[in-house]
Structure formats: structure tokens, C-alpha cells
Specification:
By secondary structure, the protein is mainly alpha-helical. Helices cover 73% and strands 0% of the residues.
Length: 259
């Protein structure tokens, strides 16, 4: 059951963030109805979601740096570099990131038909939140890491990525709930099912992964992808991180062939 600790934390943060967003939504409506006072002596503050995203970007860099030390020799480092290079070529050729974004746009267009008539469409909030929380490199990377948690004990090192993702989703769910309302809370069920199935799938092949000693390399590749995500959060460089997803699976093929 400890393998699903990161998933449960992610679901909880979505619920907490969505609930906070509902409170802020109600407060914003009251503030809009209240008469405005005089000019404030202080300049406008930065938006809290932007501040939190930058902070989480730095935390993600720290998590990535700690994971980069998992390789044990030059051969593993070479496999890691080769997997990244070939993986991004595959992702670029298949346009994985663009196709995932198009998939999300397609769902939104289908469920947001009532938006033009001015009515609130609860399905739009659920779909938007689910796509944001479930489609991304951190979801797949975190699920593989969580599956490595040994039975009978909690190892937080195996849930680092999903815990960071949980904090990101807390901020995101807060912002989405302000916009879409309570429908965002329903996306927590989608997170539970989707990520839970990914962890279950990863757990089923875990013995094979340990047999070919590929987990340190997958961890290193995942840390490099985390670093790319951190650059996105900090606004330094826009990177299509989903294009790097094939790099997570190439080390399995290479180590299997070598072994």
C-alpha cells in the first residue's frame, strides 16, 4: 500500500487546493461587491500562484540535483546520455508534446460548448483540471518512482517526484477552483484512478527492472526531465518536456539487451 503514498498525497492536495480556491472565489465575489477605498500606499503584490511556482521551481531543481547522483559508473552515465538524446529525437519526431496538447484542446472544445451561451459548464472544470494533473512527464516519472517503494515500509525517496507534483497541483487546483468552481474537486477522482493504475502497472514490471539494474539510470533520466520542468516553472526556457518521455523507457531496452 505504501507504493500509493504519493498518489494519495496528490489526491489530497488537489482537494485541499480546490477547497482553498472556493474560499478565495467567494471572497473575490464579496470584494467585488464591496465599495473600493482610497489608493494604497504599497504597490500591487505579485500574484501568489506566480510566486509559488517560482519557489517550487527552485525546489524541483534541488530534487533533480539529488537524483542526478544515482548513476554508479561511466557505462550507466553513457546509457543515460544516449537515452536522453535518442528519446528526445523520438519525441520530437512523433510530436508527443504537441499531440498531448491537441488532445487536451479537443476535450475542452467538446465539453465547453455551453461557454458561448454564458452558462457555467461544470464539465469544463473537470476536464481542464484532469488534463493538467494527469498528462505530463511528472505523472509518468513519479509513478515509476513510487512503484519502487519496498513493501511494508514507507520510503519517501521513492515519492519525491509525486510529492513535488502534489505541491504544484495544490497551487494549480486553487487557481482553477477560483475560475471553474467546485467542479475542479471532481478531478481528484481522476487523479486517483489514472495515477493509481500507472503505479500498479509499474509495480508489475518492477522485478524485471531490478533484475536488469536499470532503476538508477531511469532515476537519472527522470532527474534531467525534472530539471527541464524546473526551467519551465522559472520561466527561463519553454521546454516541451513530454517529448522527453521516450527517454524514460529506452534505458530498459538498452539494459535488457546488454544483460
Amino acid at each position: 500500500m505504501w507504493k500509493y503514498f504519493g498518489v494519495f498525497c496528490n489526491v489530497l492536495t488537489v482537494l485541499l487546493g480546490g477547497s482553498l480556491g472556493l474560499l478565495l472565489r467567494a471572497r473575490a465575489k464579496r470584494a467585488a461587491a464591496a465599495p473600493t477605498g482610497g489608493a494604497s500606499a504599497l504597490p500591487p503584490r505579485e500574484k501568489l500562484p506566480e510566486v509559488m511556482m517560482v519557489c517550487l521551481g527552485f525546489c524541483t531543481i534541488f530534487a533533480a540535483a539529488s537524483g542526478l547522483m544515482g548513476v554508479e559508473d561511466g557505462v550507466q552515465a553513457l546509457i543515460c546520455v544516449g537515452s536522453m538524446a535518442v528519446g528526445v529525437l523520438i519525441g520530437w519526431a512523433l510530436r508527443i508534446d504537441d499531440r498531448l496538447n491537441r488532445l487536451g484542446d479537443t476535450f475542452l472544445e467538446r465539453f465547453a460548448k455551453d461557454g458561448a451561451s454564458g452558462r457555467s459548464n461544470p464539465a469544463e472544470g473537470v476536464v481542464t483540471a484532469t488534463l493538467l494533473f494527469c498528462i505530463g512527464s511528472m505523472t509518468f516519472l513519479g509513478s515509476f518512482e513510487s512503484a519502487a517503494n519496498p513493501a511494508g515500509a514507507l520510503d519517501l525517496n521513492c515519492h519525491t517526484t509525486l510529492l513535488i507534483k502534489s505541491m504544484l497541483d495544490f497551487v494549480s487546483s486553487t487557481c482553477l477552483a477560483v475560475t471553474f468552481g467546485a467542479s475542479v474537486l471532481a478531478s481528484a477522482a481522476c487523479v486517483l484512478v489514472f495515477q493509481g493504475l500507472l503505479v500498479l502497472l509499474a509495480s508489475s514490471i518492477q522485478p524485471f527492472l531490478e533484475q536488469i539494474a536499470v532503476m538508477p539510470i531511469i532515476g537519472c533520466v527522470g532527474s534531467l526531465i525534472l530539471l527541464a520542468i524546473a526551467l519551465n516553472l522559472l520561466g527561463i526556457k519553454k521546454i516541451k518536456t513530454a517529448d522527453y518521455l521516450p527517454a524514460l523507457f529506452l534505458p530498459i531496452l538498452i539494459c535488457w539487451l546488454i544483460s
